[in-house]
């Protein structure tokens, strides 16, 4: 009986333990404070205006909509001839590098939140864009239409637009009202088109009060574009036929940071033309300049290679020295000119931050290029400057003309 009694007691205790576990633990306690959940819906926290949509999201069968980027639709490099229907939730649409010839309104009929369209590298012509197709997209910020066959500026466009890329087309006309109603444009690229002075006589850029970057390189301009907005910071005019810059032209453009006018027909620059308080980069290479000009104290990079300069008059560049407001010039490129002697050492008093002067080869004789005693001047840096330059990857042991060509390529016509 003793053994049976002990077994009975053990059994009672085990049953009581199990019963207590189920009584003490309330399975519903875990979910009492949990809000309603939608496990099958994606709701981006940073874009409250976008409605919830099923996951995986709707996507045109010709395209790819990665789950990691549910607001983007990738239809590029697919040999498409037509624009597929666009789901209403899409914000970024990539259609570059196809064979698209037209932009009809149909595929965009249900689109509300589209912010960026990339239609570059296609075969689109102006008359094949349905009138108002872009203007009906109220949230559109950026359009890429470079490398197409546009003959005219595409308009109308939405007032929300901030960046417009139209380079590498055949644009030769700007209708009088084409650029009206675009108060938010900050960047306009019209490089590599057929624009001439007559197209700009109507001063099409004058009302673009927020324009910061204007690219007009590789066109047919012979004079400076008129009435540019005072907000402009980056101006690209390379590869035109501009022969003269009026002395007071930049007075109304005090915010200019970078100016690129290489490969024009410039011969004489009025002394104070570039007296700009914020100018950092000035590229006047591959022109016909015979003498230098005043350098603003803010300038850091100066490119005047491949001109007809025989002597660099430092006094013209720097008429006075102010120890409390020193010139910031660090780099000068003067190769392919007609220099017979290096720049005067007075330059190092005027420009105490100079690190490199690239002389390269000089075109002293018509049929033969020669080199000065030194092809590259590099100032010895202080330990502090050395570490700063090293951090910026500016220290090089050997320099060749190819190195400086590569540096020029770094300053791409399309400002970064």
From TrEMBL:
What segments bear the compositional bias annotation Acidic residues?
388-408
**What UniProt keywords apply to this chain's record, in alphabetical order?**
Cell adhesion, Disulfide bond, Extracellular matrix, Glycoprotein, Leucine-rich repeat, Proteoglycan, Repeat, Secreted, Signal, Sulfation
Q: Where is the LRRNT domain?
A: 58-92
Task: Tell me one GO biological process term.
Answer: cell adhesion
The main location class comes to secreted
Q: Where is this region: Disordered?
A: 388-416
Signal peptide range equals 1-15
Alphabetical list of SUPFAM superfamilies matching this protein: L domain-like
In terms of Pfam families, this protein maps to:
LRR_1, LRR_8, LRRNT
List the InterPro entries hit by this protein, alphabetically: Leu-rich_rpt, Leu-rich_rpt_typical-subtyp, LRR_dom_sf, LRRNT, SLRP
Chaperone as a keyword of this entry, yes or no, is no
Q: Which ranges of the sequence are coiled-coil?
A: none
Quick check: keyword Ribonucleoprotein in the entry?
A: no
Per the record, GO CC terms? extracellular space
Location(s), subcellular: Secreted, Extracellular space, Extracellular matrix
Q: Which family does it belong to?
A: Belongs to the small leucine-rich proteoglycan (SLRP) family. SLRP class II subfamily.
Function in brief = May be implicated in biomineralization processes. Has a function in binding of osteoblasts via the alpha(V)beta(3)-integrin.
Under the subunit heading, UniProt states: Binds the alpha(V)beta(3)-integrin.
Q: What is this protein's name?
A: Osteomodulin
Native source organism of the sequence: Melopsittacus undulatus (Budgerigar)
Quote the gene name from the UniProt entry: LOC101871551
